[in-house]
Amino acid sequence: MIHTAGGEGSVALADTEMASAIVATEVLPGRSSSERLVPTVRRLMASSGWLLRELAAVVVVYGPGSFTGVRVGVSAAKGLSEAGGVPLIALSRLALLAAAVNGGEQMVHAVLDAGRGEFYYGEYMGKRCVREILAGAEDLRTAASGGLVVVCELKVAEALRELRPKLVDEPLAGDALPFAVERVVSGRFDDAAALDANYLRRTDAEIFAKPTAPRATR
Q1: pLDDT of residue 135
Q2: In terms of CB atoms within 10 Å, which end of the chain has fewer, N or C?
Q3: How far is CA 71 from the centre of its chain?
Q4: Taking the C-alpha atoms of 68, 74, 77 and 80 in order, what is their torsion angle to the nearest 10 degrees?
């Protein structure tokens, strides 16, 4: 399992037949994911005596979050999936955040900082995603006015304090295990060739790119 969409990256190996399902895990501090991700995966697998082709799936948290981190994680996961000939599972960072709390029968609103005064917002009922959008502050306050609001960034908690959000730790790669198991059992995998990052908005390059002048018709 690979998660490089947040402030820190992390990887985890899991075996549901073991007493402790998480066999190995490691955090990649700061922005070191791009250099350390694949070597760390290889080292953890070698130390556990695992071969890539033996995996039930490669799991990646494919956003939203840091554009660079998301791209690094998705690229690595697709490469490992194709190299080992094993299925790929992509999971939302908002889904992992929503699952960090027990919402019971109420709606859970997962919120992440998106910069520029905007937020990544996910509305969840249990593990079922109702919607995920990029929202401004006022729209978010309206959308998340009922139910449980969960955040993992102090900046977001302070910005939404009137909603009384629950502040939790940033989910790590190992927190993707329950979702991954469910997807493997049901046989719901993603197409590695077609998978794109879950940015929820355009990259800076796309936002600030000069529009292409239309070609003159003949």
Answers
A1: 94
A2: C
A3: 11
A4: -80
Pairing mode, strands 22-28 and 9-14: antiparallel
The span from the CA of 178 to the CA of 124, in Å, is 16
Question: Taking all residues of the chain, what is their mean pLDDT, rounded to a whole number?
Answer: 88
Mean pLDDT, to the nearest integer, of 81-86?
A: 94
Q: How far apart are the first and last CA of the chain?
A: 54
In single-letter form, the type of residue at position 213 comes to A
- Kindly list the strands in the beta sheet with 9-14, ordered across the sheet, starting from the edge strand earlier in the chain: 22-28, 9-14, 2-3, 58-61, 88-91
3-class DSSP assignment, residue 145 = coil
- Residue 64, classified by CB atoms within 10 Å of its CB into exposed (0-12), middle (13-18) or buried (19+), is buried
**Mean pLDDT, rounded, for 132-140:** 94
- pLDDT-derived band of residue 204, with 50, 70 and 90 as boundaries? very low
Integer Cα distance of 197 and 73 in angstroms: 9
Tokens 């799936």 belong to which residue? 57
